[in-house]
Write a structure and sequence with these properties.
alpha+beta, 8-stranded antiparallel β-barrel, 3 helices, 10 strands, globular
Amino acid sequence: AVICCLSVTSLTESQPPAAVNQLVGLWKLVRIEVRRPNGTITADPDFGPNAVGYISYDQTGHMSVQIMNPDLPRWKDEDHPTAAEAISTVEHGYSAYAGTYEIQQQEGYVVHHAELALIPNYVAQTWKRKFKIDGQLLRLTPPPFKSESGELVDETLVWERAR
């Protein structure tokens, strides 16, 4: 009986929680919704209405994300951007980081722990996102933040399962 109980216990401990099973995979960005205080929904001001991106989660607890504004102006010399072109891309049109993640299932959060990032200051940062999976859609909602204009906004990134 003891061996049977230990076998069942180790089996359930080695099984990832249902939320992890649902989250694991590759997701393609559908849109970014920014909710203004007056209730209007707009596109993200940096990534624009045509934002593209991918986020992936694997079963070993690793994740990576890249998002881009595809409507940024092209660099005059693709191998040697001017300082202004490079800064504009980083500040207003591209974000990427990778690291580990954990799920706080009771609270409905996924927590990203950045180990590398396009912006060096993001390394070793932790980001908590509310997550909801509905069929083939994943919604990630960070805490409200102040926009450049100073208003408090809510943002939701909507992803569709790619595989």
